[in-house]
Write a structure and sequence with these properties.
By secondary structure, the chain is α+β, with helices and mostly antiparallel strands. The protein is about 30% helix and about 15% strand. It is built from 12 helices and 15 strands. The strands form 3 sheets. Strands 8, 9, 10, 11, 12, 13 and 14 form a 7-stranded antiparallel β-sheet that branches. It has a 6-stranded mixed β-sheet with strand order 5-4-3-2-6-7. A two-stranded antiparallel sheet has the order 1-15. Helix 9 packs antiparallel against helix 10. The radius of gyration is 23 Å and the shape is globular. The two termini are about 15 Å apart.
Length: about 475
């Protein structure tokens, strides 16, 4: 495939930064719980149990606005009683962050090691008090579900801690417990794939701030500065993170997920940065250079060999995605551009983003799952060449909204809508990337890729 790109001097506009976080109203959480009850009843469940911990918090937070900190937690939902939230001692007070009326019960074993655990009801008793009885068909939502290729009985496999799973099975019977995570996390049918307008406004807030954090680091990038000193420019703190901060240079970039170190950045070496908060992640990778002349001799064709073809793929990705597009179409598109073994693209070229950095993805070979209004999607195409060329990256998130959703968004969140419109216009007029009407770029860096990171105004433009 002929790759179409060129490097042009382009100034990134100031799209603005939101100051006020768009809060979700209580009714949204009430509606989510009601929808889950309906879905679970339709699936034949009489009760649902949602597990969460610090790493796997998103399903519980989605349902009630509470994310456990330091500890595990369970939300027990059945058709005949109010939800019951079971937490460890440190989250008893923090649970009040939820706008919902829930019974909150204490199970000290969810707490950290060394804390008093003796004065407590057993987990079995707490589950029974929440309305669970023998023979009650119970769906358990953790953070993964399984396929027949992964497990002999995928619907019976639970990814939650054994002591919690066994307690549930002792109360309702092992034959009554089923993995129900897909009800929330299926990429096209799961409830969390259908984001409300207010939720997308929150994601825009997050994506804007993390992209501005990346911009600050790139503006401060220079030979002689340490990775940790660059991290000071992130100015984190507005939102909980969805992943650890990643900054690496030189040979450390091969580690991919590395956090910043004391290594000193040098001219003519690779560099990458990624930061993610709930609902948004931005990543950039390239070289600490002003031009190809700063690169090692063997990779001075970096633009023609790797970065340019990669950008052409990303531009085509942006122009292709839309409501009704099958995930397999994007997978095939990425392979048509970057299918050569040299590029080393092995992960899915895009996924759904939510409170967690990767919720699930409809983008895989042969996928007929279609994108729908309400999806929030991360452009996530990662070359891992394993060669001196290193890598390149242009990760940012978009949302999809139909005409009705866009009208509601514009009415309720006019400032965020103005930023989105300005980003779309810049991508079209400045970068020659033409988006479908339903594609809403959430990041202030969407489409903007400077392969030589000391020359941030020299960016790729899509040629036709």
């Amino acid at each position: 495939m002929k790759q179409r790109f060129k490097l042009v001097d382009v100034r990134l506009p100031n799209f603005g930064v939101p100051d006020q976080f768009p809060m979700l109203q209580t009714g949204i959480y009430q509606n989510r719980l009601a929808q889950l009850r309906r879905r679970s009843t339709d699936a034949g469940f009489q009760a649902m149990i949602v597990y969460a911990d610090r790493e796997h918090f998103a399903n519980l937070s989605y349902l009630c606005g509470f994310d456990p900190r330091f500890e595990e937690a369970l939300l027990v939902i059945n058709t005949s009683a109010d939800p019951v939230l079971i937490t460890g001692p440190e989250n008893q007070s923090y649970s009040q962050i939820s706008p919902l009326d829930m019974d909150v019960e204490l199970f000290p074993t969810f707490g950290l090691l060394g804390q008093e655990r003796g004065k407590s009801s057993s987990l079995e008793d707490l589950l029974s008090d929440a309305g669970l009885v023998r023979g009650m068909s119970t769906g358990v939502i953790g953070w993964k579900y399984f396929t027949a290729s992964e497990a002999v009985a995928p619907d019976r496999c639970l990814e939650i801690p054994s002591y919690v799973a066994e307690a549930i099975r002792r109360v309702v019977g092992a034959e009554s417990v089923v993995n129900a995570t897909a009800l929330l996390m299926h990429p096209s049918l799961g409830l969390r794939s259908w984001n409300e307008v207010a939720q997308i406004a929150q994601f825009e807030y997050a994506a804007t701030h993390v992209s501005e954090a990346v911009k600050r680091v790139l503006a401060a990038l220079r030979p002689g500065i340490s990775e940790r000193a660059l991290a000071d420019h992130l100015h984190l703190g507005r939102l909980p993170l969805s992943c650890h901060p990643m900054i690496s240079s030189g040979s450390r970039t091969r580690l991919g997920l590395a956090s910043p170190s004391d290594k000193i950045v040098e001219r003519g070496e690779p560099f990458q940065i990624a930061i993610g908060a709930w609902g948004g992640l931005t990543c950039r990778a390239g070289w600490v250079a002003e031009s190809a002349d700063d690169l090692p001799q063997e990779v001075q064709d970096y633009v023609e060999r790797l970065a340019g073809p990669y950008f052409a793929c990303a531009a085509a990705w942006y122009e292709t995605i839309g409501i009704g597009v099958a995930g397999g179409t994007l997978d095939a598109l990425a392979k048509s551009h970057l299918g050569d073994r040299f590029f080393g693209v092995s992960l899915n070229p895009g996924h759904l983003i939510h409170l967690d950095e990767w919720m699930n993805t409809p983008i895989y070979p042969g996928s007929t799952e279609m994108f729908h209004s309400g999806h929030a999607v991360q452009l996530d195409i990662i070359p891992a060449t394993g060669t001196p060329y290193g890598t390149v990256n242009i990760e940012d998130g978009i949302a999809l909204l139909d005409e009705h959703g866009r009208s509601e968004f514009q009415t309720r969140f006019p400032d965020a809508w103005s930023r989105i419109v300005a980003r779309r216009e810049f991508m079209s007029e400045g970068l020659n990337i033409k988006l479908k009407p339903e594609v809403l770029p959430l990041s202030n860096l969407a489409g903007y890729l400077a392969p030589f990171m000391l020359a941030q105004s020299q960016v790729f433009v899509h040629e036709r």
